Amino acid sequence: MVRRVDAPPAGWYPDPQNRTRLRWWDGLDWTDIRRAPPSDAELSRYEDSALAPTTRAGEFAQQAANQAVSRAETQQLITEVRNVARAEVDRAAEEFTQRARTVVREVQPLVSGYSNRLIRWIKIALVVAIVLFLGWLAFQIFAQASLFDWIGDRIDNLFNNDNQGAALGLARFGRA
């Protein structure tokens, strides 16, 4: 087992299981990350960067200066992007509001048109129900009145027939 102090730094090393490939050493253990060996172009680029350390130092100084300018430009760019994003959100919200208003204007006549038809049918049904109720009520009154008249006539006829019969019987009795 390798002590942490003695372990090589993290990097690409020949894979102990397959020497034709490279494997990543994370500083403590081998990982499952593997790759092919570097190409000639990669090697020459690496050698060029290793041979020119003074050029690299100048490049780093130039990059640092560019980064300072770049930070100001980045802040300005971020501000511009925020403003554009806000403007786009406002535009999208306004467009959504306009579309919603248009839909409401288009749907409202449909709803009121159907509700007006429904209300009209309800009114017609209500008028028909009232007319039928009044007809039934009139029939009931007429039927009851005629029923009572008929019963009254029958009772009168019974008494009239009895009175006439009694009068006829007395007349006959008196004659006899």
Annotation keywords:
176 residues, three-stranded antiparallel beta sheet, mainly alpha, single chain
Describe this structure in words.
This protein has 176 residues and is mainly α. Helix content is 77%, strand content 8%. The chain contains 2 helices and 3 strands. It has helices spanning 40-51, 53-175, and strands at 11-14, 22-25, 30-35. A 3-stranded antiparallel beta sheet has the order 1-2-3, with no helix packed on it. Strand 1 and strand 2 (22-25) form a beta hairpin. The longest helix is centred in the middle third of the chain and has 123 residues, at 53-175. The radius of gyration is 56 Å and the shape is elongated. The model has no long low-confidence stretch (mean pLDDT 78).
Count all strands and give the number: 3
N-to-C SSE string, H for helix and E for strand: EEEHH
Poorly predicted runs are: none
Q: In this structure, how is the largest beta sheet organized?
A: 3 strands, antiparallel
> What percent of residues are in strands?
5-15%
Rg from Cα: 56 Å
The global form is elongated
Proportion of residues in helical segments = over 70%
The computed structural class is mainly alpha
Residue-averaged pLDDT, rounded? 78
The neighbouring-strand order within the major sheet is 1-2-3
Alpha carbon gap, first and last residue? 160 Å
How many alpha or pi helices? 2
